[in-house]
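Help needed: design a sequence for this.
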């Protein structure tokens, strides 16, 4: 699969550096009307002419994908609004141009909305929570089938179904999708997806057996306690969908260019693109994602190992059951003993070189509570800290750092509200869980009444204001905000 920068390299750079599109993602999502060879030949023949117009050339050889308009009524019931949005956000299997950057999927799926007109990996789990709450189990199953097909075809689930996303993944929530199906009464889910779960695990653990001769390889790192994981990307160039932003950042950064690009890409794999969490200081010029061992990633891999153990037991793979159960147990012990900063009182990311705490407080600290890994004492300590430092008027803030990046203050994000809600309830902090969830629901409702939209992220410090930060304008739709809004209402005994 050729990415757009590989398919037409000269044209790609010309467009992405011209300012023709305000958003770098626009060009790489355009559908070519003929082969790259024809486009390249025409471009090289025409670009030297004094009358050459880049915008006209792009319009002649590419077309934009059709994206249905999101129509909303701010006076309507939000749950009904979301119910009507699912068909708008649904994409059905279709015949794509063989040169399109979008990878065809076999079954229907939900896109987030706005500029995101493709399926996204970790977004989809939180979207599925809402689909399940409103009885859309068939669509949930179709999306999980699509992910299993991507695993079987590519060996992993990419960031999204675009050619330019195929060098990285996203937080591994596939196991939780399988568990969701199982919990919704699909008793064959473990058996149906066992092979895909194993392939997903092999992708994240690739190279683990050879780490004795090297400290790190791709997504695995050898510590004195065992193998732990990090985010990575197999490519070290500017992201195609954020090309000019990455190039301009490299001009400001003292980092080696390729190292910077890989760290940016690994940050995109984390889903937290971007946050001060990944930086030496609060500036993106010092991003160092590949040098950190994230607590949430390792928690999700514990959950994957646990699901594999249950799936192996359900399908009669006794030896595999024991192997995965032991792997989950070992990882849980590492998270308990090494990722918990006793001095700070919360779970942290680790620096892979020194294996010491980064000291940064983020909502990722609640993942071990979400997974039930934390001890009772650790959970009580974490909850005391996050209640004091990360609870805001409108819900949980992602970090307490105001860096200008979107995964920092003042923004709150739907997936982390769900992680917090479940994590707190797991350890008996039900009142606080309800309080924060109610605040988040109210924040969603305030913005909906003002703008008639469910949006990608919210300003939880000033809930009446639209959120901002990051590389692009706030997006409307919006898959995981819809899903978590419904899931929280259902969990709190409210109507959906």
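Sure. Designed sequence:
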């Amino acid at each position: 699969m050729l990415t757009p920068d590989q398919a037409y390299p000269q044209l790609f750079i010309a467009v992405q550096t011209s300012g023709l599109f305000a958003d770098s993602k626009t060009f790489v999502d355009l559908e070519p009307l003929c082969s790259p060879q024809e486009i390249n030949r025409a471009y090289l023949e025409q670009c030297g002419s004094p009358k050459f117009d880049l915008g006209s050339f792009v319009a002649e050889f590419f077309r934009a994908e059709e994206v249905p308009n999101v129509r909303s009524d701010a006076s309507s019931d939000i749950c009904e609004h979301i119910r009507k949005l699912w068909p708008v956000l649904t994409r059905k299997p279709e015949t794509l141009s063989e040169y399109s950057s979008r990878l065809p999927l076999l079954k229907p799926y939900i896109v987030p909305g706005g500029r995101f007109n493709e399926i996204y990996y970790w977004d989809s789990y939180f979207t599925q929570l809402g689909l399940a709450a409103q009885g859309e189990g068939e669509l949930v199953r179709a999306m999980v089938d699509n992910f299993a097909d991507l695993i079987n075809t590519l060996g992993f689930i990419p960031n999204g179904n675009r050619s330019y996303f195929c060098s990285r993944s996203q937080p591994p929530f596939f196991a939780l999708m399988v568990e969701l199906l199982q919990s919704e009464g699909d008793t064959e889910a473990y058996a149906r997806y066992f092979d895909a779960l194993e392939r997903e695990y092999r992708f994240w653990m690739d190279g683990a057996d050879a780490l004795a001769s090297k400290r790190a390889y791709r997504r695995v790192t050898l510590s004195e306690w065992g193998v732990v994981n990090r985010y990575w990307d197999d490519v070290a160039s500017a992201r195609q969908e954020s090309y000019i932003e990455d190039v301009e950042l490299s001009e400001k950064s003292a980092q080696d260019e390729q190292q910077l690009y890989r760290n940016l890409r690994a940050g995109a794999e984390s889903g937290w693109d971007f946050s001060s969490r990944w930086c030496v200081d609060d500036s993106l010029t010092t991003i160092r994602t590949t040098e950190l061992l994230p607590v949430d990633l390792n928690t999700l891999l514990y959950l994957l190992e646990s699901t594999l153990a249950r799936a192996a037991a359900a399908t009669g793979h006794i030896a595999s059951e024991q192997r995965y159960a032991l792997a989950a147990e070992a990882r849980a012990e590492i998270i308990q003993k090494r990722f918990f900063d006793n001095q700070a009182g919360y779970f942290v990311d680790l620096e892979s070189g020194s294996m010491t705490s980064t000291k940064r407080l983020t909502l990722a600290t609640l993942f071990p509570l979400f997974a039930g890994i934390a001890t009772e004492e650790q959970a009580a300590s974490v909850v005391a800290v996050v209640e004091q430092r990360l609870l805001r008027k409108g819900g949980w803030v992602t970090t307490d750092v105001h860096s200008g990046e979107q995964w920092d203050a003042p923004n709150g994000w739907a997936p982390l509200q769900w992680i917090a809600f479940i994590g707190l309830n797991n350890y008996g902090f039900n009142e606080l869980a309800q309080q924060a969830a109610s605040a988040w629901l109210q924040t969603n409702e305030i913005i909906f009444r003002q703008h008639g939209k469910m949006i990608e992220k919210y300003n939880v410090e000033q809930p009446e204001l639209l959120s901002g930060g990051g590389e692009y304008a706030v997006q409307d739709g919006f898959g995981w905000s819809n899903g978590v809004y419904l899931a929280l209402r259902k969990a709190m005994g409210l109507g959906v």
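Residues 4-63 form one domain.
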